[in-house]
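Practice problem. Given the sequence and the SMILES for zinc ion, write out the predicted structure.
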Amino acid sequence: MKLFSTNAFVIYMKKLNEADLLLSYITEDYGKITCFANNARKSKKRFLGKLEPAMLTNIKFYEKPGMTLDILYETDIIEDYKNVRKDIDIYLFLAKITDIARVLCQERDNNKNIFYLIKAIYKSLDCIDAKAFPSNFSMSEALLKYEIYFISNLLKYTGIFPNFLTCVACSEKNTGNRFYFSLKNGGVICKSCANLRDNAGIKNLPVNFINLSNLMIVSDLSIINKLVAEEALLRECSVFLEDFLSFHAGKKPQSIGSL
Ligand SMILES: [Zn+2]
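Answer key:
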């Protein structure tokens, strides 16, 4: 039996019966993996208290011939982001982003950047400091910035970041960011091409959305502390991204809409 070992974050857990669990992880070395954890709810030494979200763990797993799922052998805690689990707003936010990662990432499609993105967000939220923000700190505003940062970068790493530069139908340049957005085509569309089509899935982009998401994908997470933007605008941008994700994924990730 060959044991594989990697650092990982739990992104999904389901109880299968009294004792067994199904777990999905974003790992540092293997992308998203889904494991069967035999007797996990009873095996204190190997698993107890080590399967929580917002915990960086090292997991050991193996493949079993004839099974599509990997088998989780044991896990150890490397870093525990305890504060994240104490704040209900942050905790719900993390449930939302891990669910988005679960829907968007393919099994075994390894991209270390997604692992590091999640790690950076956990670390940052674990010691979120109201004083680091410009003024009138609002947690909901901060979490919107984290969400836009997370989704924009995840879209980049999964290769589905929208085309904002040229019309998806005629390739005209989107000078001055004045085009509409076509959900169906995953990019901007000029006014004359939009008029030739039915309007389903054609939307106005929130003001400054293109600049904001372009800024997010070229900056590290500290941009969140520096960025000044109205909460209403941030909310519009996050709604737009969620619509785009839902359309792309073909279904709404469970947690979108619940916040
Ligand atoms: Zn066009």
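Check your answer against the key. Residues 129-251 form one domain.
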